[in-house]
Amino acid sequence: MAYSDKVIDHYENPRNVGSFDKADTSIGTGMVGAPACGDVMKLQIKVGADGRIEDARFKTYGCGSAIASSSLVTEWVKGKTLEQAASIKNTQIAQELSLPPVKIHCSILAEDAIKAAVADYQKKQGLEAAAAAPAQEKKVA
Amino acid sequence: MRLPIYLDYSATTPVDPRVAQKMIPFLTEFFGNPASRSHAFGWRAEEAVEEAREHVAALINADPKEIVWTSGATEGNNLAIKGAAQFYKTKGRHIITQRTEHKAVLDTFRELERQGFEATYLEVQENGLVDLEKFKAAIRPDTILASIMMVNNEVGVIQPVWEIAEICKQKGIIFHCDAVQGGGRLEIDMQKFRADLLTITAHKMYGPKGIGALYIRRKPRVRLEAQIHGGGHERGFRSGTLATHQIVGFGEAARLAKLEMATDNERIRALRDRLWQEVSQIEEVYLNGSMEKRIPHNLNVSFNFVEGESLIMAVKDIAVSSGSACTSASLEPSYVLRALGRNDELAHSSIRITLGRFTTVEEVDYAAQLIKQKVAKLRELSPLWEMYKEGIDLNSVQWAAH
User: Fold this and answer.
1) Is B120 helix (H, G, I), strand (E, B) or coil?
2) Closest Cα in chain B to A65
3) What ipTM does the predicted assembly reach?
4) Which of B209, B237, B347, B376 lies at 20 to 30 Å from B27 by C-alpha?
5) Per-residue model confidence as pLDDT tens digits over B220-254
6) Contact assessment for residue A119 and residue A131, using Cβ atoms and an 8 Å cutoff
7) CB atoms A141 and B327 under 8 Å
8) Residues of A recognised as catalytic
9) Whether B392 and A17 lie within 8 Å, measured CB to CB
10) Which H or E run includes B316?
11) pTM value?
């Protein structure tokens, strides 16, 4: 698989790996994908008092592109408002990482993960989703 | 120790330097066409081809007249299966194989179905083996041919082909055995093993690629319809100028295999067991296929909660095969592991490690440590591992398939 140097770099040195406490009200958690499809992404955002994303963490089960896409978005969302974060497009991710056509779905998953994390945070705050909450949002039983 | 370490001996083996040495003069010096009967160049080449035929025949205790050269195992399987089915088609149109055969057999069966034959694809048991009772039950009055492999290429299990050959003999069914992964690695004695047709190839036994052999039993005589026409070489079974240097290489590889098989196997088995000893310490690791009925050089394991392609990327210092076809455009996991009843996730996260003549203890130890370390790293990254550790049953989670 001819991966770009950026994918290899994120894969070998993934940024912001880990987990925040799901129950914390300042945390939004998005989990998208399915094991049977070969990708599951968990993205968490920590939102500050000013409404900006202070920090982010991820864990991803998936191929090199999926790991790189989620690692990249943890860097991108930091410092952004919720609207700004939710407006990140998969095409930007795919372009930044030079993903091959068969791996475009990884960037879509990363975009969905951000939206799901934002929606989860807003729900916790009692806010109705300003950003469109995607159907992929998951609750763990 | 040089990196990456080659641990994919079931895909192909390096040519043994002793084999390569034997081949070289037949490229530059004794380059004659073995079919040239009118001069010494041809005679010398023919002599070398026949000597090699004796070595290959001796490896499987057959008569040299029962050996036909092919371009490799795919051609051998095609010639055996299509050749026999087409020759005996007036006797019946039913043929039997099983689901974990190599594509060279399965695709050939599909082609015969297209030509009007009816095929049965037997399921295998969870350990990868064909159930003899199910095999017997699949036989019909119009069954003319069965094809079962000796050793599975992915999981290394040894099928009960000796028993199946006896069943076929009693029922008057032609039995073909794809012995590509067994040739040079298992003892094969065609005086005792009642298969009618047997495929082997050089590049799985330290010979060159591009040369194989099909064993065609003479007593009782098995007939085939040729698939390649033109010149009537190989007694009409397979036309085409013989590749003298390749054949010489195959002959020498077979000679060495016969001499060294027992000691090689003992050493390789010890290395494989040493590797498994280490790797089996990892949590949630699954061995695919029977350990008892297994060729000594194969280990096929799945690591739960780790995705297949990232695993292959992580262990790139060892050259191994993956049960995941993720690296190609298709997302299909290994059909062999699926046939063994493994779910998609485990089938995707499998690696096949196959050892060989040149594998060392240092290499095996390095591989074991690398696998342990990288699986741990990927699990640190895996939300599924985290959920498993929290005691969540992943089957109870409503995933949104995408």
Assistant:
1) strand
2) B310
3) 0.88
4) B237
5) 999 999 999 999 999 999 999 999 999 999 999 99
6) yes
7) no
8) 37, 106
9) no
10) none
11) 0.91
